[in-house]
């Protein structure tokens, strides 16, 4: 049976000594005592649950994190709690809210963490709300990935989900402030964009600015999205011109006296730096408003 699994998962390994991090694999043991480790990024939560039925003596008791989750829970919820000991340098919070709590919490946690290609921790605020803490060591989950995860969770647990993706932050005491700000953003997204299952900071910036935020708050949003890019005057001018030309690349290139390929290169560069896809209306609007405020 394990040989057949090896054919389906060619990157699977038979020996834990063959990897530097056994937590990156889901481990199974057959009745003969042979084991197989399947990379977590290659196996779905549904496949994992099915194989656990076939291999009751699953060896996959390895935690997803290299630190104690209670330490993160204490740090994020208790005043003056110490920063957890971790090798992570940057993390982001994926906030979630569920329609009800009539499900197995351990099964739900296993399903969520199975989708994460790298170390992660799941912290609950209450029975239906919490955050997934994701590191930048692996490839970050995109909003499309989270939409797929949301659909799977709804199918498996019959629970509706809403999610909000924060930005990556340096692991420091400032995480408290970032988390609280993002939590408020998530609440606003639920109120203003009720039809979107997954939202991020770029989606709600226009609504935030309509609420007449203070200069200090506005600067936080500029820093979070534009970051160091706000000082790149050539790039900022290019993106502003492109948006003002109704996203017409040919017209914008003529206005800027550059080749269309050069324009596309700068647009890609802006997207890579900020995470804003300015071909998307909400992202283009957010980018334009923040650039005007930055001026």
Automatic annotation (TrEMBL):
Gene3D superfamilies, per the entry: PucR C-terminal helix-turn-helix domain (1.10.10.2840)
Domain of life the protein comes from: Bacteria
The PucR C-terminal helix-turn-helix domain, residue ranges: 235-291
UniProt-listed Pfam families: HTH_30
Signal peptide: none
UniProt-listed PANTHER family: CARBOHYDRATE DIACID REGULATOR
Annotated protein name in UniProt: PucR C-terminal helix-turn-helix domain-containing protein
């Amino acid at each position: 049976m394990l040989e057949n699994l090896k054919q389906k998962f060619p990157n699977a390994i038979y020996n834990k000594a063959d990897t530097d991090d056994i937590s990156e694999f889901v481990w199974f043991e057959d009745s003969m005592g042979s084991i197989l480790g399947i990379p977590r990024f290659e196996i779905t939560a549904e496949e994992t649950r099915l194989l656990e039925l076939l291999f009751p003596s699953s060896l996959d008791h390895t935690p997803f994190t290299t630190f104690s989750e209670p330490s993160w829970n204490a740090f994020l919820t208790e005043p003056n709690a110490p920063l957890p000991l971790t090798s992570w340098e940057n993390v982001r919070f994926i906030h979630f809210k569920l329609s009800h709590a009539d499900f197995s919490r351990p099964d739900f946690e296993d399903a969520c963490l199975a989708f994460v290609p790298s170390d992660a921790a799941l912290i609950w605020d209450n029975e239906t709300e919490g955050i997934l803490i994701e590191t930048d060591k692996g490839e970050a989950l995109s909003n499309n990935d989270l939409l797929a995860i949301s659909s799977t969770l709804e199918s498996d647990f019959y629970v509706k989900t809403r999610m909000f993706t924060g930005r990556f932050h340096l692991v420091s005491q400032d995480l408290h402030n970032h988390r609280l700000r993002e939590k408020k953003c998530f609440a606003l997204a639920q109120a203003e964009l009720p039809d979107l299952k997954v939202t991020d900071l770029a989606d709600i910036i226009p609504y935030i600015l309509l609420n007449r935020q203070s200069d200090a708050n506005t600067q936080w949003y500029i820093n979070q999205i534009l970051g160091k890019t706000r000082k790149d005057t050539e790039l900022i001018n290019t993106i502003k011109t492109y948006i003002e030309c109704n996203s017409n690349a040919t017209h914008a290139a003529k206005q800027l006296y550059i080749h269309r390929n050069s324009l596309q290169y700068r647009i890609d560069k802006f997207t890579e730096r900020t995470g804003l896809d300015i071909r998307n209306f909400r992202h283009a609007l957010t980018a334009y408003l923040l650039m005007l405020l930055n001026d």
